Amino acid sequence: MRIDIISALPALLESPFNDSILKRAIERGLVEVIVHDLREFGLGKHRQIDDYQFGGGAGMVMMVEPIYNCIERLKKERDYDEIIYMTPDGELFDQKTANSLSLKQNIIILCGHYKGIDQRIRDHLITSEISIGDYVLSGGELAAAVVSDAIIRLIPGVLNDESSALTDSFQDNLLAPPVYTRPADFKGWKVPEILTGGNFHAIEKWREEKALERTQARRPDLLN
């Protein structure tokens, strides 16, 4: 898989891809993540990428031409399955969407900034718009990192135990059950005996019951 991220502030995306699971996935060649500085496509001496909005109003708008030129340059090199725009008014990102995107080969993620991007880009080039929640960030970079992380960890070979991702919260519309590790008794706080008994059939049933209980208590909407 290849993920191309277009950003006005590419430095914000350095850390998320230089540590832990994502770093190892890139080093193993399981995924390629390329961050593009939109200012390289900016206009004029100062590489302008934003301007005042028509009709007046507070806030600058990311210009159509630099974004168009960047996306078209990428599209000349390969075909893209999705061109995603990170925006607060997009479709709410969930595990189902992450699962679907993890099966794609090439994805572009465009990070919004300022007041947003010229609507003509959304009308003519964007194939899907994604939000990570009902709130506003200073830009789409952190949201793009969240989406990329959720996608990449689902790629076969990224996690040491591929079955781990299949038991994550939301994979089956249930939250994950409680988990424990050693010691079995800490200050009198004991691990449930069923988990140390070695009866894996009973353990699996216990986990299913606890997952259902937790979902009913915390996110009953998932059960609908």
Q: How does this model look, in words?
A:
This protein is α/β, with parallel strands linked by helices and 224 residues long. It has two domains: 2-152, SPOUT methyltransferase, trefoil knot domain (Alpha/beta knot, 3-Layer(aba) Sandwich), CATH 3.40.1280.10; 167-223, Trp Operon Repressor, Chain A (Orthogonal Bundle). It contains seven helices and nine strands; from the N terminus they run E-H-E-E-E-H-E-H-E-H-E-H-H-E-E-H. The chain has helices at 20-27, 64-77, 95-101, 119-124, 141-152, 163-166, 200-218; strands spanning 2-7, 32-37, 50-52, 60-62, 82-92, 106-111, 128-131, 185-186, 189-190. It has a five-stranded parallel sheet with strand order 2-1-6-5-7, sandwiched between helices. Strands 3-4 form a two-stranded antiparallel ribbon. It is elongated, with a radius of gyration of 22 Å. The model has no long low-confidence stretch (mean pLDDT 94).
